[in-house]
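Let us work through a complete example step by step.
Step 1: write down the sequence.
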Amino acid sequence: MPSIVLATQNAKWIHASFGLRYLRANLAELREHSTILEFEISQRPVDVAEAILAQDPRIVGLSVYVWNAGPALQLARILKAVRPDLCLVIGGPEVSHETEQQEITAVADHVVRGEADLAFRDLCRRILAGEPNLPRVIDAPLPHFEQLASPYDEYTDRDIAHRIVYVESSRGCPFTCEFCLSALDIPVRKAESAPFLQQMQRLLDRGVLHFKFVDRTFNLGIETAVGILRFFRERYREGLFLHFELIPDRLPDRLRAEIEAFPAGALQFEVGVQTLDAATGERISRRQDVAKLHDNLRWLRDHTGAHVHADLIVGLPGEDEATFARGFDELLASGPHEIQVGILKRLRGTPIVRHDAEFAMAYAQEAPYEVLQTGAVPFATMQRMKRFARYWDVVANSGNWSATMTMLLAGPSAYEAFATFADWLHTTTRATSGIALHRLASLLWQWLVEERGGDAAKTGAAMAEDYARCARHDWPEFLRPYVQGGRQASVPRRAVGADRQARHRGD
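Step 2: predict the structure and record it as tokens.
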């Protein structure tokens, strides 16, 4: 039986915990006496506790994030109730700030704050050696890459075959956006290029095709970014898919040349725009060259096969719905494949709280601490904008309705056109999730033709095109008159990359 169990509750099974793999890889002589156990937040905490306690460990290291904070607290209470002698060590972003204010920290024996790769190992050594009077809260010294053992061998063959593989070539962020934990004084540290690329080659040799880089600012160092892209491009094989987070206004010609050389569907860029209102950006310490941002987005869409996923945030201090709507329309015009409309969260430790009084910010008290209302966005309007975000993801970001979206967004403001549809959809269904594609097709038809008086032939042709492109076989009866040339039996060619991205490309 292992002495140390490293555990966490992931949002979904497909998300393999990168942090736990770093912790285990850096346990040194204790590694062979440890194991990783991963669960999903959908599982009952009592069942998770049963699986952990079946290993009869002396130490449990529990990773706590904003998405699993509630289940983690329940799990911690069960573990300590059943095994009071168990040494429970917690860590992760959620408990690294405002530590003493959290119930889970009172349950745990030790809290490791910050990047715990090495500090957790040192604490385990002291616990297993029986050292008395160990500190309850440990502030981890900031590690540098040359001090760390590589975590990539901790990915199992099953992980590689079925789960997302996370990698990183840097840590930290030079920017100070107040809604983000990276706004704290955490310097950027980069992995040495040659050893990092050797590790990537080993993953390629093991069959990894889907790499998700967690670097906060992949294109901060242009030479490094160019080198990584060239490395993967030279080793490209069908199905390779790379995800990066990009600074939106930093895309010089050398980087453009590498991006342009990749086959369609191999690259996905998450571009953090967050707000296009200058006053809001200044208020939250987010500065960006908006003209360059739009130029880069248009270039990516027009000249590359990369999938572009841009982020906007609802509920930033002082930004009202009208201002957000203008930014949304402006961003949409630059052509990203997806716009992720996120809801502001008051992450523990972030300096966004300095605006609470002036801008009447109200947040939920339970994780993930979403904003409830602000002085600029009343509660009812915030609820409307949250439904907009959810429906936009289901309808637009899914890639299922690319042809239909043109009609759905018609009018002077795409935001207002979709918001009006979202209001009707909620009134009609009272659902924000679980709407099957077949039912959604009927609702779209009802809205566009019966409610808005749209041309039935044009609407039917567009929706039939979308259904055929996505190779659906459950054709609604109302669409059958618009099927042409056996279209409903069509099957798309094999997609490169993720299915959702392939739908946006029309594969």
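Step 3: interpret the result. The two ends are 49 Å apart (CA to CA).
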